[in-house]
Amino acid sequence: MLEGRCLCGAITYQVSGSPIIVAHCYCRDCQRVSGAGHTTGAMFREEDIEVRGAMSEFTSRAESGSTVSHLFCARCSSRLFGKNTGMPGVMTLAVGTLNDPSAVTPEVAIFTRTRPRWEPADAQVESFDSQPAWKPPE
Ligand SMILES: [Zn+2]
Ligand SMILES: [Zn+2]
């Protein structure tokens, strides 16, 4: 059972099951929402994540044309989750919000074409220039 929370603690969550995939993302949108060179996200089935507290939502358009929902704490601005209309039924949690971020292991890196030159690459994972043609298993 994984647990996490936002910076101020107004939003907490629990996760059951194991991640479908854990990915570093170097896309420009992730850089803007995080203020860092990349984000690391763990994708789970939506029903495996139980959230306590009211989240705010901001939507943006992905390069693929699908809509991305950013779910965050309105009080402290931590971004906890992302959803994508191109991948219904799954939710990606921001690994840095876990109580133990080491509990998951990144497997791939995506959008590495916009990795800043000062951002180290993770040599342990498979890298993709953009979003690989990949769908979560049913
Ligand atoms: Zn908060
Ligand atoms: Zn991204």
Mean pLDDT: 94
Structural class: mainly beta
Specify the overall morphology: globular
Cofactors and ligands: zinc ion
CATH class designation: Mainly Beta
H and E order:
EEEHEEEEEEEE
DSSP E strands, number: 11
Strand arrangement across the biggest beta sheet: 6-7-8-9-4-3-10-11
Number of helices: 1
What is the CATH topology? Metal Binding Protein, Guanine Nucleotide Exchange Factor, Chain A
The level of helicity is under 10%
The span between the termini is: 22 Å
The Rg value, from CA coordinates, equals 14 Å
Beta-strand fraction estimate: 35-45%
CATH architecture: Beta Complex
Describe the protein's topology:
Layout: E1 2-5, E2 12-15, E3 21-25, H1 28-34, E4 39-45, E5 49-52, E6 56-61, E7 67-72, E8 79-84, E9 90-94, E10 108-110, E11 126-127
Bound molecules: zinc ion (ZN) (2 copies).
One zinc ion binds at residues 6-8, 10-11, 73, 75-76, 78.
Molecular structure report:
The chain has about 140 residues and is mainly beta. The protein has a single domain, classed as Beta Complex (Metal Binding Protein, Guanine Nucleotide Exchange Factor, Chain A). The chain is about 5% helix and about 40% strand. The chain is built from 1 helix and 11 strands; from the N terminus they run E-E-E-H-E-E-E-E-E-E-E-E. The strands form 2 sheets. Strands 6-7-8-9-4-3-10-11 form an 8-stranded mixed β-sheet. A hairpin with a 5-residue loop joins strand 8 and strand 9. It is globular. The two termini are about 20 Å apart. The mean pLDDT is about 95. Bound molecules: zinc ion (2 copies). The site of one zinc ion (ZN) has 5 residues, from helix 1.
